[in-house]
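Entry 12.
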Amino acid sequence: MTHAPKTTWLQRSLITLIVVETLSLLSSAMQLNLLSNLPVDMEAAKANDLRESIMGAAFFITYLFTSVVFARWIIASHKTVRALGAQGMTITPGWAVGYYFIPFINLVRPYTAMKELWCASVDPQHATTQVAPSLLPGWWTLWIINGVLGQIIWRMSMHAEGIEMLKTVTVLSIVGSIAGVALSFVALKLVRGITGNIARHFEPPALQA
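Predicted 3D structure (tokens):
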């Protein structure tokens, strides 16, 4: 299977992202505890800021790497099901990724592309008659929630002044990390599901007794 290495890298990246987001969640919880117990010791505040900066950088790098690997996996998987003779697919491999970058359209078309990929992975010749599992809308709902929360947290953090505002941003960061972990878990299950479906088409037929 030509996209097997990309699948392996993606699964490892998603697992790493889950670990980093979990650590980020714990770091935010520690910051909330610090902000809730005033006055704040200067050394503790400096240590907190350093830890948060490190976690922020680690998350950004891991998320960026995972996004690139995910994009490559999507393209490779779309090409693979087409090579298997997939019928009725309306979105090309390139646009299956490209739609993520177009405002408003990115709220619908990437989901459609992933749904078509799942159905084609189950039965390439009869993809249009396949029913996608509830896992797919669950993944997409978490994706949108995660994106909205990320935008809110980023905008608020740019103008956060005072302890109460910092506490609010920190609470939202904790919620965002929980949503991020859930999204990564569901994405991992989705990738494994599609990969498993595709793999079955490469298995040799069972020998008749």
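Annotation: The chain has a mean pLDDT of 91. Residues 42-83 form the longest helix (42 residues).
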